[in-house]
Amino acid sequence: MLQRLVEMLEYTSVLDKAAACSDCYERMAYVAAFSISAYSSTASRVLKPFNPLLGETYECDRITDLGWRAITEQVVHHPPVTAIHCESNAGWILSCDLTVQSKFRGKYLQITPIGTIHLLFRDGSCYTYNQVTTTVNNIILGKLWLDQMVEDDAGNVRWTVTGKWDSRVELKKGIEGDEETMIGWERRPLASGSEKYYNFGQFTCQLNEPEMGVSPMDSRLRPDLRLMEEGQWDKADQMKAALEEAQRFRKRARDIGDLPPHNPLWFASKPSALTGQLYWQYKGGYWEAKEKKDWSFCPDIFTPIE
């Protein structure tokens, strides 16, 4: 699930363009295009991701090639809440926490992400938006199209955003005239045979590559995940059950005072400077700990109870 959240960052080149804009309306159009790009993989990805353990983290450091790095942490177990913080050399910071509400209606499942995404640019401008409800149907008819406009406070159309939510978004200044249409975002095609690999694209596959020096609570170090990737399905299922039982054991120990209350290592719940709403904000320290190679304060969450 932590890696799934980082997938929203696949098309951060759109945010790089937004950061370079001097026109606030043009920037807003690019922000809209980026927000849409996060849904590009959902049409072909219907399997449920792993439930993270409390305290589980995932880092994605793409500074050398994409100019950004992100850290995520499972900050609350019930209801499950995941926090993410991403900072870019291009001049933007993305942060949010996310929980999901789901409703089963017999023939379809509604999944509603709860949490506001904050985008802060180097010049001090900040944008917030919420993700939309996704409905999983047994039969999907037709294609969804986008036809949205960016207006100013007087209702004047400044930029037009059009396209398909799962493939391409185009931007155009104003609504009429000979203004050039620009590609705001375009989905990269999946490789041939991707249906054999859960319809993962190249970026998604790269997210699970092992990396040296990560936190001992990083998702890639989960023993059940490694067993599953090796094709040992029965052992993976047994290990997953054992890890979750160990998590329940720790919760019972905290409830009776044998263990101290759980406090997230990298995020703290504070009011948003814009909305006033509480959300989990990065408090720093992760990349410094990685540089020092000091994870001595991290609990062991990936060892089953003997």
TrEMBL record:
InterPro entries: OSBP_sf (IPR037239), Oxysterol-bd (IPR000648). Belongs to the OSBP family. Coiled coil: none annotated. It comes from the Eukaryota. Pfam families: Oxysterol_BP (PF01237). It comes from Ranatra chinensis. Keywords: Phosphoprotein. This is Oxysterol-binding protein.
